[in-house]
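User: Here's a chain of 221 residues. Predict its fold as tokens.
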Amino acid sequence: MSTTEPVPSTAGTASTAGTAGPADKKLRPGRTNATKQRLFEASMELIGERGAAGVTVDEIAAAAGVSKGTVYYNFGSKSDLIAQLLRHGVDIMLVRLQDVRGQSSDPLESMNNMVGQAMEFMDDYPSFARLWVSENWRTPGEWSAVFAELRAELLAVIGSAVESVATGYKVDESIARGSLEAAIFGAIFVVGLDRQTYNPERTREQSVAAVMTIMHGYVIK
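Assistant: Prediction complete.
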């Protein structure tokens, strides 16, 4: 089994790597190390229980099995730790999106696969999704600049996929592309978290189909 995931190249560029298996998908991108992955998973679990403000560096270090000094040596502060772990989580998501995007020649099916992969990421790391939703729109927020940068990268990947749909299908040009991309992006988080929190009986496929109604409304039959 592979010990690393491929590193995403540039946003919106399809990966040429093969699709990772279920066990491989939760492994770290190649440019990060095992310590960061342990810190990421430990932090997400603790933050999911009490929120970012309620978790201490001591608790994160203990849960990850590393010393407090290791955390400060590598990250400098709790704020920097959270910022870099947000980056780490988005890197994992970007790798997954890139991996599935080129699996189909049909751009709508590719978009469907990408939404499904995003939902799977949220199933694997539900606390990351909750942290993203709770902190992303907080104004002013401690990590506002980080969220803005990461959001732009994710939207660029979605935007590239939307562009492929617009090239392959007749679409409603009256719909603002930026608003469409934001609608897909927001729906993935809202629908995914709603399923996890209130409707666990819903399947991932049902949630993906709900998000994809946005794209089907964009395409002119």
